[in-house]
Amino acid sequence: MKYIISESQHRRLIESVKFDTITKVSTNWFKKQISRGEDPHIDGSLLMFLGIKVKFRGYIAIMESLTNFLGIETAYNVGVERSKKTFDTNDYPNIAGGYDFKFTLDLNKSETTQYEFDVKVLPGAEVTLITDGSTHEIKDIVNKEDIGWEIQNEMDEIIDEIVINEIAHYSGFFTIITKVELM
């Protein structure tokens, strides 16, 4: 007997197999991290091993795997605890480039597997421009017509990437930055 399936059925079957594989590999990865004394988390090695990029197909499966592995309540608490610290771009040289600032997060909303944060960038935030090597206070330069929007966008991207690495990848909860305020 011959079975004929549609292209969409074939795609769903492939996606289902990929999801199962991602779940199994991720769960084993988290168990190995625990055996090494680490907190279970999504890291670059796991993403590279599975050939998945942040915010692309398959990423949701890894996030769900971590949340399921931890349990929803534990996952929630992990993210909340990790969000209580002051983040410093100097701790993330591969992400921050010429930006030097500290920020805190205020959890303003949480849904099933998602946090929404307001960000407060602490006083003294600076950026060193690639164009001429000059250093500027971010609160002053974001108001400049010619470059301010670019500085704001880059700062937002840095904050987003740090929050993903520090909170989403340890809780399995997605993170949304709702507001960035310069203090």
Molecular structure report:
This protein has 183 residues and is an alpha+beta fold. The protein has 2 domains: 1-70, no CATH class; 77-183, no CATH class. It is built from 7 helices and 7 strands. The protein has helices at 7-35, 44-50, 59-70, 72-82, 93-96, 138-141, 148-171; strands at residues 87-88, 99-100, 102-111, 114-121, 126-128, 135-137, 174-182. The chain has a 4-stranded mixed sheet, with helices on one face. Strands 2-5-6 form a 3-stranded antiparallel sheet. Helix 3 packs across helix 7 (148-171). It is elongated and about 60 Å long. The termini are far apart. The mean pLDDT is 89.
Helix count, DSSP H or I runs of 4 or more residues: 7
Largest sheet features: 4 strands, mixed
Overall pLDDT metric = 89
Oligomer: single chain
Please tell me the total number of domains.
2
Which tags fit this structure?
20% strand; four-stranded mixed sheet; 50% helix; alpha+beta; three-stranded antiparallel sheet; 183 residues; single chain
Q: What is the topological layout?
A:
Blueprint: H1 7-35, H2 44-50, H3 59-70, H4 72-82, E1 87-88, H5 93-96, E2 99-100, E3 102-111, E4 114-121, E5 126-128, E6 135-137, H6 138-141, H7 148-171, E7 174-182
Parallel strand pairs: 4-7
Antiparallel strand pairs: 1-3, 2-5, 3-4, 5-6
Helix pairs in contact: 1-3, 3-4, 3-7, 4-7
